[in-house]
Amino acid sequence: MSKKVYLCAICNIESGTCNEDCKFCTQSVKYKADIKRYKKKLIDDIVYEAKKAKENRAVGFCLVTAGKGLTDKRLEFVCKAAHAVKQEKLDLKIIACNGTASIEQLKELKKVGVTNYNHNLESSREFYPEICTTHTWDERYQTCLNVKESGLKLVSGGIFGMGESNEDRISMLKSIASLEPMNVPLNFFHPNEALPIVKNSIKKEEAFKWINKARQMIPNAHKIMIAGGREVMFKDSQYEVFDHGANAIVIGDYLTTTGKTAKDDIQELISRGLTIVDECDAK
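The structure assignment produced for this chain is given below.
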């Protein structure tokens, strides 16, 4: 019996406008990375990307904004975008990823058809002050609790390769496990010359080990998803992630970096005998 693989696509609906100082993120205005920056993507363009995601066999479509969290204006825009995608009846799980959020804000997203909310812990509580000083790890954890309280399904993961220790990695995975998220996106730091973190501190074989560890420590997660940094971290071995506990990947482009084409990913997955699941069968 072949392994089931789930595909997800992300849509950067507000780019490069963040005032936080997260050292791993090109979205911060502080580091002046050479990326596209805009306040609001056109709703028609968002809907077009959703349709392309469906054509490319994605089961989830994530609406991502830059910035620390949801403001009234940002919430209104995300709701408008989510409603527009929902109206197309594409049978996509609509995921929102908009930073810190209150229970009341999250309930507003739920009303317009958002089913999942993605808020990553990014690192261990102990290591977080090394990579961000403008907000706390505890704010992130609280938002994850708010997601569960609001009735949305939680998506929460982190990043490997920012200079953290193995103890930090275990601590992060324990914290993620304590939240019992439905899905866990694992990212691998993608260096950019504008960022203070100069290089990825994790090797490929270690990365495979930590995917395995995530699956062991968070056994009830419906998806262990390999997201940002997949191509850079694993290169020709990227589809081996499915031999190490992962069962989902992000297809297409990421927030500010280019990914493989969805067509290439799909061809590779099929040629390896993997079954691409065309609808999310999570309860």
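Interim note for the steering committee: The first helix runs from residue 43 to 55. The CA atoms of residues 32 and 194 lie 7 Å apart.
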